[in-house]
Amino acid sequence: SEILVPEKPAAVVIEKSIAVLPFVNMSSDTEQEYFSDGISEEIINMLAQVSELKVIGRTSSFAFKGKNMDLKIIGEQLKVTHLLEGSVRKSGNKLRVTAQLISVSDGFHLYSEKFDRELEDIFDIQDEVSLAILNAVKIKLIGQEEKAVLKRYTDNIEAYQLYLKARYYYNKYTPDAFLQAIDYLNSAIEIEPDYAIAYSSLSYCYLTLWYFNWMPEEQSLPQALKAAQQAIQLDNQIAESHLSQGRVKLHYELNIKDALIDYKKALAINPNSAECHIQLGMCYAFFGNYTEAHHHAEKADSLDPFSLMNMWFISAIYWAAADDKNLLAYSKRMIEMEPYFSAGQRMLAVYYLLQKRYDEAITKCEIAITINPDLIELQTLASVYGISGDKVKGREVIERMKEIKSSETSGNAFLGIAYASIGELDTAFEYFDKAFDCHEGFLLWVKPFGRLIPGFMEDPRAKSLFKRLGVPNE
Fold first, then answer.
1. Burial class (CB within 10 angstroms; exposed 0-12, middle 13-18, buried 19+) of 464
2. Cα separations (Å) of 110 from 101, 114, 208, 280, 394?
3. Distance CA 114, CA 84 (A)
4. pLDDT digit string, tens, across residues 382-394
C-alpha cells in the first residue's frame, strides 16, 4: 500500500540526504525484529551526527516498513537523494547482515556489502556500513564528527541488545510500552552501570509517563530527574544527555532559558535530531520569538515528515506562535494520516476555537475524548464551552475532569485553564499556583488559552504568572 504525505509545501531535495529503511528481519524468529530495527536505528543515529548530511528520522523511515514499494517513490516522498536498505539474519551467535546504498535518481547501487560475522562484531559492522555510506556520498569526516559517528556507547553485547529492546518498545509511545522499555533499560544498566544513553532513555520514559499523567508523580518524577542527572554525569558528549537535561529544565523546572542552552548543545552534536528542533521551536514560541520557532518547526518536519508525534508538537508550536494557517494544515495532516489520533482531532478543535466556530470545535473535542478520555482532551472541551459562553456545560466537564484520579496531584494546570475559561479566575489562579509548586509542564500552555479568555491577559495575577515562567506578557 502506498504512503502519501498529506499536502504540504514542496520541500527542496538536499544534495546529500539519506533515509535508512528498516533492515528486514530474515531470522526464523520474529522476536528478533527488535534487533533488525535496532541496527537500522543505530545507523540512523550514527549518520545523524554528520552536519553535511540530511538524515531522515526513524519514524518516517520506518513508515515504509513491509510496504514493498518502489524505492524511487520512497525517495521522492522522503525528499532524499539516497536510500540504505538491508537485512539481518541472527541465529544464536551467528550474524549475517547485508546493506545496499542506492541512488534514488537512477536506482544505481553505490555500495553493497554482505557480512558473515559473530554477534559481538555488530558494532564493527555498523561502523563499516556508516563509513562506507559517507565515503559513497563523498563526505570526509574530521575531528569531533568522526569521534561522534564512531562512538561506542557500550562494548557489552548483552546490555546493547537490552537497550535495543527498550527502544523498540518506547517507540510505540503507549503507557504499557514505556513500562516494558523501563524494565529492559534497568536490566541493561544492571549489566553496564556506566551506560549513559540508557540513562537518558530511562529519563525520557519516566518524564513522559509523568507529563501525561500516565504514572503517579512519586513513582515517575524522582526517577526521571535522577536518570537525566546520571546521563549527563556519565557522558556530556552525547546529544541524548543534553536532550534529557533540556527536557527536565523545560517541562519540569519550567526554565526555558536554561533548556535552550541544553537543546542547542544537543543540536550541535546531532544536527539531524527532529526532537531537538521541536523542543527548540517550543522554547522560542514560548519566548515570543516566532521567526526562530517557525524555522525549527520546518526543520523538524523536513527531518521526520511521517511522525504523528512530530506533527502534533509542530502544530502546538504554531498554535503558541499564533499561526492559525499552519495550525490548520498540521491538524489536517494528522487526521488524514491517522483519524484515531486524538491530538489531531484536538488541535483541529483548537483551530475552530480560534476561529470562533464553536460547534465544530465541540464536535472535534467529543471525537478526541471518545478516542482518549484524558485530562488534556476534557480541558480543551471545557475551554471551548467556557469561551463560547456556555459556562454550565463547561462546569459539567470540569466535574468529569475531577473524577480522573491523577487530576488531584498533577492536573492543576489543566483545571486552572478550564476554570479560567468559564470566567472563574480566582479559582483558576489558585490552581495555577499549585501547578507552579508541582512543576507541571503544561503550565507553559496557559498563555495560548489565556489570549482567548476575556480579561485574562490584563489580570495582574496573569502578569505575575508569566513573569515567574519567564515568558513575555503580550
1. middle
2. 5, 14, 41, 36, 61
3. 13
4. 999 999 999 999 9
